């Protein structure tokens, strides 16, 4: 009886309640059961975008800068114009060389047609010479028979023999003419690959000159807004000199969660976030990708934990969050803004 009175006395009940409350506070602070939350949050998160640094592919003097800092531009808009006089002349020279090579190839076609006609003419002459030879052979044979019969005179037989010899010589000469004509044709045809290669080389030179000339114009690669424009008229720029940057309107969020928070995160889960620069409200999105490695693995100087004293630090895993469309605050998001992200691990965006 005294024990029960001691336990449930007015002095011990408040102490017992205070102890229970303290335990509950600790469980809640560490998000331990029964206070485990399905929401994972982090303030190590930033708005990201495709910021493209623009630089010339050629060296030269800047002659025109028709844009200003932070201007909205469309794809193809001229941002910086370099002096193009040298490259215009190089294009004209390349086009002239191409014209010469094309003329040489056209002359080949005419010369080839002429040589082919010569071969055909020589072959026709050979056919005629062979026909004459056949006639001379028949005449010689007939005169020889008549001479043996005593009908023809010796002079007629001699004339037939001479005509036969002349016809045989004519055939040999015609064959030689055909061979010479064929050699001339083959010689012309052998030069065609070189002429065609010269034309292709000249065409490539024209295309290269056109590319170089077009590269004197630095244009916007996409729709977006410019950053600071550092190019100045009269400035000499080399290849790779930063002139300005362009940022498309599309943005997303990269949230770096601790590895201890990753157990419940997966692609498709709904997310909400607030932006430090925009205190007006909360935006929504969903997890689209989870990094295949911790952020430290992508750093230039990776930590070496094999030497020295080791202090365990929770690694951060980048998580990409796509922003839901048709939100009033979305157009105000700019790459680099700090955000606070919360992800409901119990929901998945359909």
From TrEMBL:
UniProt domain p-hydroxybenzoic acid efflux pump subunit AaeA-like beta-barrel: residue ranges: 252-343
Multidrug resistance protein MdtA-like alpha-helical hairpin domain mapped to chain residues: 122-186
A matching Pfam family: BSH_RND
Multidrug resistance protein MdtA-like barrel-sandwich hybrid domain location: 54-247
Gene3D superfamilies: 2.40.30.170, 2.40.50.100, Helix hairpin bin
UniProt feature coiled coil, ranges: none
InterPro entries recorded: AaeA-lik-b-barrel (IPR058634), MdtA-like_BSH (IPR058625), MdtA-like_HH (IPR058624), MFP (IPR050739)
Protein name: HlyD family secretion protein
Organism for this UniProt entry: Paradevosia tibetensis
């Amino acid at each position: 009886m005294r024990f029960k009175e001691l336990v449930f006395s007015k002095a011990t009940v408040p102490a017992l309640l205070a102890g229970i409350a303290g335990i509950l506070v600790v469980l809640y602070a560490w998000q331990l059961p029964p206070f485990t939350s399905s929401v994972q949050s982090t303030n190590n998160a930033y708005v990201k975008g495709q910021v493209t640094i623009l630089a010339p592919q050629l060296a030269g003097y800047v002659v025109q800068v028709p844009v200003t800092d932070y201007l909205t531009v469309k794809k193809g808009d001229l941002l910086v114009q370099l002096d193009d006089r040298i490259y215009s002349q190089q294009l004209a020279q390349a086009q002239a060389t191409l014209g010469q090579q094309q003329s040489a190839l056209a002359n080949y076609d005419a010369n080839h047609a002429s040589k082919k006609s010569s071969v055909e003419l020589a072959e026709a002459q050979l056919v005629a010479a062979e026909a004459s030879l056949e006639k001379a052979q028949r005449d010689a044979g007939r005169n020889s028979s008549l001479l043996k019969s005593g009908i023809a005179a010796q002079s007629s037989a001699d004339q037939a023999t001479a005509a036969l010899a002349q016809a045989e010589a004519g055939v040999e000469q015609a064959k030689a003419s055909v061979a010479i004509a064929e050699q001339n044709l083959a010689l012309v045809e052998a030069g065609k690959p070189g002429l065609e290669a010269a034309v292709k080389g000249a065409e490539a030179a024209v295309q290269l000159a056109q590319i170089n000339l077009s590269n004197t114009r630095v244009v916007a690669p996409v729709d977006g807004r410019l950053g600071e424009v550092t190019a100045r008229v009269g400035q000499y720029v080399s290849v790779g000199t930063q002139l300005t940057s362009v940022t498309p309107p599309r943005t997303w969020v990269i949230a770096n969660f601790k590895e201890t928070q990753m157990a419940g995160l997966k692609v498709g889960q709904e997310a909400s976030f607030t932006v430090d620069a925009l205190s007006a409200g909360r935006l929504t999105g969903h997890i689209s990708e989870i990094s295949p490695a911790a952020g430290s693995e992508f750093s230039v100087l990776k930590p070496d934990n094999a030497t020295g004293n080791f202090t365990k630090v929770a690694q951060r895993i980048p998580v990409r969050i796509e922003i839901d469309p048709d939100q009033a605050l979305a157009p105000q998001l700019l790459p680099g803004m700090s955000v606070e992200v919360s992800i409901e691990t119990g929901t998945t965006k359909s």
